[in-house]
Write a structure and sequence with these properties.
Layout: E1 4-7, E2 10-13, E3 18-24, E4 32-39, E5 46-51, E6 57-59, E7 67-72, E8 77-82, E9 91-99, E10 112-113, E11 117-122
Length: 123
Amino acid sequence: QVQLVESGGGLVQAGGSLRLSCAASGRTFSTYTMAWFRQAPGKEREFVAAFRWRGSTTYADSVKGRFTISRDNAKNTVDLQMNSLKPEDTAVYYCAADRFYERPWDPQGYGHWGQGTQVTVSS
């Protein structure tokens, strides 16, 4: 069973930066596709970025060029560096994981989720 714990959320002004981190338990981290999703009040959970177990990354169009996902398989962590933040980035951000998962944008296939961390961007 994989447990995920997010950290790094907070309040930032528009144009600022934040770095989120997700720490995972378990010994097979490198076999998991890791992703970040977010959910704003009254909206559905949406895909942000993913780092596939094979090594490639994918991003939502809304964050391309501003957000960068990275992972450290030795430390069992996946980070999300968020730059040029906008008020519309305000949401609870969730870390998700599933083994050998090949549809990283689809939340239905993730069996493991963190508790979420709040990101608030003020205008």
